[in-house]
Amino acid sequence: MSAEDLEKYETEMELQLYREYRDVLGLFSYVVETERRFYLTNSVDLQVRGADTGDVFFEVTMQDAWVWDMYRPARFVKNVRVVTFKDVNVEELAKSDFELPSDE
Question: What single Pfam family name could you report for this chain, choosing any that match (predicted)?
Answer without folding.
Answer: DUF2469
